[in-house]
Amino acid sequence: MEYARLGNSGLKVSRACLGTMNFGPPGGVGVGSCDEAEARRIVDAFTGSGHNFIDTADAYTGGQSEHIIGRAIKGQRETVVLATKAFLPQGSGANERGLSRVHLTRALEASLRRLGTDYIDLYQCHQWDPDTPIEETMATLDGFVRSGKVRYIGCSNFTATQIVEAQWAAARVGGTPFISLQPQYSLLVRSIEEEILPACERHGLGTLVWSPLGGGILTGRYARGTAPETYSRVGRLLASSSPLARAWAQDLLAERNLYIADEVAEIATALGSTSVAVALAWVRQRRGVTSVAIGPRTVNQLTGNLVGFTLDLPAEAVARLDDASSAAPRH
Length: 331
What we know:
The chain is α/β, with parallel strands linked by helices. It has helices spanning about 35-50, 65-70, 100-115, 135-145, 160-170, 195-200, 235-240, 245-250, 255-270, 275-285, 300-305, 315-325; strands at about 5, 10-15, 15-20, 55, 80-85, 120-125, 150-155, 180, 205-210, 290-295. β4 (about 55), α2 and β5 (about 80-85) form a beta-alpha-beta unit. It is globular, with a radius of gyration of 19 Å.
């Protein structure tokens, strides 16, 4: 089993991270659809194969993801690197969201209760909060570390500028710096390569990348001229009552994305592998990537995903994928 240090820390995590947005019934952020029995089988199969990194958030499926994870890792808590996140609304009150001292303190205590643990290995800011001074956030997180309730801290969806601001703020308040960033990264979305990955390397952050399969497009299940299955992620988005969700689905089905998916499929066939494994292997092999979050809804999906963490793409395959997915040159 391959492990890597997470950023400028001694914490060792598996290259695969189990993302749990889909654990539980629909609610909050996440589409749900993975019941507790199957979720626990997934967790047992994941940890049973030597992987140790599990990520959730207080907003996933209305908090049910944390409940399920807490019950699933009971008895193996000391061998699991447990990560969760806070920021998103937990109620309708003015102070029930964000990265203020008030909200983060309440959110941490609630996550600890749901997870059934007295400490969290990696506590992350789910996104930047423009309404809270970053010094307040970093001082609050430092207090969590000093209390023993949190071991390390990280962030998610921060820009390069925000990463630098946070690390500087931690230094100003004499507090604990971030050791990780959770950004979106795949063959379809490579924007972090320009500024975010260099900022992470310069300021001591490892990366836990999400959506490595491009919202499912890179699995090869979506074909031109064929309507997506109603139960698929894109199918559910297209049927959503939210205009934003429908627009996101249409963006996912853009011609550029389908072309890249075709290239992935051709390489997979040539290698005797699968599109899923090839897409995950490409992300895993990128410079600056510490761990890759996968979000299986079944044990079979997990098994297929994990192949991507043992597949080594030949140089010519990497070059072909790089060319197919590269952005237009910028001045």
